[in-house]
Amino acid sequence: MPRNPLHKPLAKPVTAITLGAGSRGNVYGGFAEKYPDQLDIIGVAEHIAIRNERYAKKHQIDDKNRFDTWERVFERPRFADAVIISMPDNLHYEPCMKALEMGYDILLEKPIAPTEKECRNILAMAKKTGRIVAVCHVLRYAPYFVKMKELLQNGTIGEIISVQHFEPIEHIHMSHSYVRGNWHNSKQTTPIILAKSCHDLDIIKWMLNKPAKQISAMGDLKWFRKENAPQDSTARCTDGCAIERECPYSAIRIYHDNKQRLYVFDLPEDKAKQPEAIMEYLKTTNYGRCVYKMDNDQPDHYITNIRFGDNITASFSMEAFTSYAGRRTRVMGAMGDMVGDMEELVITDFKTGKQTKLVPKAEDVADYKNSGHGGGDWNLAADFVQAVAQQNPKLLTSTIDESIESHIMCFMAEESRKYNKVMDVKM
C-alpha cells in the first residue's frame, strides 16, 4: 500500500491539543514523536497527574498549555489547529461539540458518542461549522483491509454473496478491559458492541460499500458471573484466595508475575519500586478484584447478522474465550472466495482453481506497520494531518459522515439483542 497520493509537503506541522493522555492518546502522540514535522502536540488535558506530567515532558508542552480538565482548554481562544479526543467513551460528546463550536478540527476516538442522538448531533454540528471530524475507525487505514476492499470492489471473486467475520477478543484482554477494566459496565460507558466491535461492523460495511438494511443480534454474559465463582474464592486475588494460583484470570499472575497490560497502572519510573506498586494497585483497584465478583454486565459472546443492499448477508461473531487475537474474515463470491487473518489473504479462483496468497504491507513507511491495528493507527494520523493542513476531508475515509452508519448499526444490534427483535437500519 503506497502513501496516499494526495499527500503534499507541509509548510509547517499541524498543531494539536490532546484531551486524554491514556493509551489511545499516546498512540497518536507516538506519531507526533516520530514525525514532528507533521504533527506537533502543543497542549494536553489530563486529570491524572502522572499521565499529564509524562505526556507534557514527552511533547515539551508549555505549562500554560497543560490542563487538568478538558473544560479548561476551551476557556481560552483557539490556540491549535486540531483537538485529539481520546478520553473515555462517555466523555466524547461535550468536548467534541465545544471544539467544533470553537473552530477546531477533530480526531475523535471511537465510539463517536454513547447514544445515537449524540452521534447525530455531532454530525449536524460538523456540517454546520464545516470542520473536519475524523473518526478513529483505524481498520480502514490498515494495509490488510485496504487491499481486501480493493480486491472485492475490483470483482476479484465475482459478485459478493456473503461475509463471515470473527473477532476473537482473547480471554485475558476480555478480563482486563471488559470485566475488570474501564468498559466493564455498559451503563457507565458503552455497550461492548460499540466499545469494542464498532470497528468490525464498520469494516464489513466499508468493504462491501452497501447500505445496511436489517440487523439482528444475540449474546449474553455467560461466564463472568457471581454464580460461577469457584468455592473458596475471595473478593480480591490478593486476599489469600485458595484457587488463585490455578485460576486463568489471576490478577497476581497477569499483572505482577507476567507483567501484562501494565500501561493502565501508571507505574513509577524506578523499576525496583514497580512490583510493590503493582501489588498496591491490585489491592485497591478493580484490576485486583475477582472476575466472578465484579459489577460487570458486558456480554462475553455476541453474534450479529446483517442484511446489506443487494441481499448480501454478513455474520459477525465476537468471542471472549479464545487463546488468540486477530480478526478473521471469509468472503464468499460467485466466482471465488477470500480468507484472511490480518497476516495473510488467500484468494481462490473457482474457474481455474488457482490460489493467490498476499501479505499486504505499507511501502516505505516501515514505522507505520509497527503502530496498532495492523498499521492503521498511524496511517490514519498521517491522513488526518494532511486533511487538516489542506482543509480537505476527502483525504480521509472515516469522516463522521462515513462512519456514523456503522454506529447506527451498533445501536440497532444492541436493541435487537436486548429485546429479541429484528431491527431495520434507518439513516
UniProtKB/TrEMBL annotation:
Specify the GFO/IDH/MocA-like oxidoreductase domain's residue ranges: 145-222
Q: Which domain of life is it from?
A: Bacteria
According to the UniProt entry, its GO molecular function terms are: nucleotide binding
Q: Gene3D superfamilies attached here?
A: Dihydrodipicolinate Reductase, domain 2, NAD(P)-binding Rossmann-like Domain
Query: Where does the Gfo/Idh/MocA-like oxidoreductase N-terminal domain lie?
Result: 19-136
**Protein name listed in UniProt:** Oxidoreductase
Q: What is the lineage of its organism?
A: Bacteria, Pseudomonadati, Bacteroidota, Chitinophagia, Chitinophagales
